[in-house]
């Protein structure tokens, strides 16, 4: 599988995650979201940027429970809860947000 962005072919794995993390750009994130009928808002970007920072620091994509707790610490309780995160990423905040953020699928996600 591949995603066409700006005339460049970006290789994806069988689940639609980037094969090469270095291929990620905001345009790639938007194209991945558009492919799933999602328009990225500032609220989405806040979570995506948080995930990328988390991954850079810990070299792992957080599972949903860890993500929820970490978002709550950094962005406040109103955003650090499952209801808010699922409102942004209905297919699962771990899987869907990590995909758009250009990160590997979180461990423990089915």
Automatic annotation (TrEMBL):
Any one of the GO CC terms: cytoplasm
Its EC number(s): 2.8.1.-
Cell compartments where the protein resides: Cytoplasm
InterPro entries linked to this entry: DsrC-like_C, DsrC-like_dom_sf, DsrC-like_N, DsrC/TusE
Active site residues of this protein: 109 (cysteine persulfide intermediate)
Class of this enzyme: transferase
Function: Part of a sulfur-relay system.
Protein name: Sulfurtransferase
Organism: Thiothrix nivea (strain ATCC 35100 / DSM 5205 / JP2)
Source taxonomy: Bacteria, Pseudomonadati, Pseudomonadota, Gammaproteobacteria, Thiotrichales
